[in-house]
Amino acid sequence: MKCEDLNQNINQLAIMLFPTESFNEKFLIKLRECVVNLNHLHPLKIWMKSIDRARKEDGIKVKKREFLIEVLNSPFNLITDATMKKNIIDLLIEIPHQSMPEKILRSFLYLMIGNVSRSDNIFLEIINEPPVELWIENSKGSGFFHEISMEYLGQIFRKFSNHPTDRKSFQLLILYLKSFFNEDDLLEIVGQFGTHEVESNLNLKTVEMTAPFLVKYLKLQKLSGGQKSDFLLKNNVSFRDQLYWMIPFLNLEIKNSEGIYQELVNIEAENELWFIYLMSDENLFNIYANKKEKRFLPSRRAYLKKGLHSTDSFMMSLYKLIEFGDFGDDIVKMVATRAMHE
């Protein structure tokens, strides 16, 4: 890397959006050398302060980290030691349940103190959320518990996988992540865990009642061509549910374009961010564009830039702006400022 490379917005964004724990120390040293003479308002200078702050973990966080690793490394499936159990309960009070990794960590700790039903219910809450809602929640996570859960996610999942209780909810979670997430590191982790048991029981009423939309999606995956659309009609899946769970993730023949169009209009009014993502599907875009006489993209840029001011929509709005090639100094500075205040 050359210092002059940092003058380009795309390089600044790439650095600030790269996982901080994955940076090579030599790269950080070189980066500091380049940044030291920059104006104090330069986005990378602001961002470097957030990195330095994050790396200075205080003693309390170090102790929490050591304790969580001790629980993870326990050879037992149940913690009975009174002191350890109390420490776990204290952590459960403290851990947010905002992002998916935080929820998974909470589920794991409940499992370790013997509250299996509470642990399973957290998984069921995750897999019954439309993927877009979980993506938005997940994009807000960046704190201590979020990061340590991501760091040890494979180990946490191994604990779940080997636990002697019913693993239906865990296997459904694995299938949910495989179906609706595309991060390579995450897929590499979840790919290590078998789901044959729950997949062979998808027709059971108890399984479908546990995660109705996920089960419908998994059944659809096994069908071919027109069978998929016939399945949706036969099972009376609403257009709203199709647009949140089915159509964006499967190549489906759309048999009722009028009904789909009206639901697209409804979603555009209620959830414009998801509507913009839906427009990535060529069939949906054509259905919408053939009815509308205005161009799709120009008015969306202003909406997405406005979304950068909200924690709820920041990352998903930023992703689309980058995809559209619509970013400049102002957006780079917003990314840096957000990192500083997380």
Could you characterize the architecture of this molecule?
- With 342 residues, this protein is mainly α.
- The chain folds into three domains: 53 residues, no CATH class; 131 residues, no CATH class; 121 residues, no CATH class.
- It contains 23 helices and no strands.
- The two termini are 27 Å apart.
- The model has no long low-confidence stretch (mean pLDDT 88).
Measured as a percent range, the helix fraction is 55-70%
Calculate the mean pLDDT score and round it: 88
Rg calc: 23 Å
Number of domains: 3
The ordered H/E elements are: HHHHHHHHHHHHHHHHHHHHHHH
Structural class: mainly alpha
Number of helices: 23
Fraction of residues in β-strands: under 5%
DSSP E strands, number:
0
Profile the largest sheet.
Answer: none
The best one-word shape is flat
pLDDT under 50 segments (min length 5)?
A: none
Q: In angstroms, what separates the terminal alpha carbons?
A: 27 Å
